[in-house]
Amino acid sequence: MKISPKLARAMLFGAALIWGSSFFVMKNTLDAVPPNLLLAIRFTAAGILMSAIFFPKLKKLNRTYLWQGAIIGALYYTAYCTQTIGLNNTTPGKNAFLTAIYCVLVPFLFWFVSKKRPDLWNLAAAFICIVGIGFVSLDGNFRIGFGDAMTLVGGFFYAAHMVAVALFTKDRDAILVTILQFYYCALFSWIAHLLFEDTPTSIGSDAILALAFLAVCCTAIAMLFQNVGQKYTPPAPAAIILSLESVFGVFFSVIAYNEQLTVRLILGFALIFVAVIISETKLSFITERFSPQKNPQ
């Protein structure tokens, strides 16, 4: 099924909007549900839903899918777990922007598994991103809070997860790998919950609705929107649209969580956002417009 470019962009925008809203929803839900239990429920439900929709693809399962899926799932779980723990100790807006550093880190981690060195755009993005992180996270004594530190660790593991996906899904069914990573993430979350967390005696209706939203909308639907939207959208505009996730994260945090923005935070957010745009697009949407091919003399 082929869709129009406008619909593809709308789907990417929808994915960014949904993911942006998830930060404050998760923040509020963590008051009633421990981090690993939240992830366990979220990814178990998402895995079951995706399996029901794409059931014929499960016939392709083999030993290679299982061990590669385990590695991808372990990285995905570690990223989500550390990010969620960080969210429990910082604001949704800061969590959204600090997580976005994975976009800047990917080229450097990929360097370890390939011969492709980061280019000047990647180096510039990394420098700008580090300055932005300083504005967002460091206090007057140049110390970083626990929540921000855990969020940055989560960003690192998101980058590692993306590198693993690029390596292992080249000749694999991407949807089947996605389903497997959901189940592995759920498995690791259940184990961590049973070992290290107390199970709540009751979960309120608001928390149940939030968990349903996170599982169905923020996990299954948003990922489907991303996969389909990226297929029919050029990389540069797709990256720009998806990077709006962090902007929406701050917007919803200010509106629904009453997060207070300072000039220093706004400057830090802006620098991180610029770094993500540079790393993901290399400003091709600007340079191509003024290239000789576009403007022949």
Which characteristics define this entry?
297 residues, mainly alpha, globular
Describe the overall structure.
- The protein has about 300 residues and is an all-alpha fold.
- It has one domain.
- About 75% of the residues lie in helices and about 0% in strands.
- The chain is built from 12 helices and no strands.
- The protein has helices spanning about 5-30, 35-55, 65-85, 90-100, 100-115, 120-135, 145-170, 175-195, 205-230, 235-255, 265-280, 285.
- Helix 1 packs across helix 4 (about 90-100), helix 4 packs parallel to helix 7 (about 145-170) and helix 5 (about 100-115) crosses helix 7 (about 145-170).
- The protein is globular.
- About 45% of the residues are buried.
Q: Main beta sheet: strand number and arrangement? A: none
Structural class: mainly alpha
Count of DSSP helices?
A: 12
Helix content, binned percent: over 70%
Computed over alpha carbons, the radius of gyration is 19 Å
Provide a quick synopsis of the model.
The chain is an all-alpha fold and 297 residues long. Helices cover 76% and strands 0% of the residues. The chain contains twelve helices and no strands.
Which helices and strands, and how do they pair?
Layout: H1 5-29, H2 35-53, H3 63-87, H4 92-99, H5 102-113, H6 120-137, H7 146-168, H8 174-196, H9 205-231, H10 235-256, H11 263-281, H12 284-287
Helix pairs in contact: 1-4, 1-9, 1-10, 2-8, 2-9, 3-7, 3-8, 4-7, 4-10, 5-6, 5-7, 6-11, 10-11
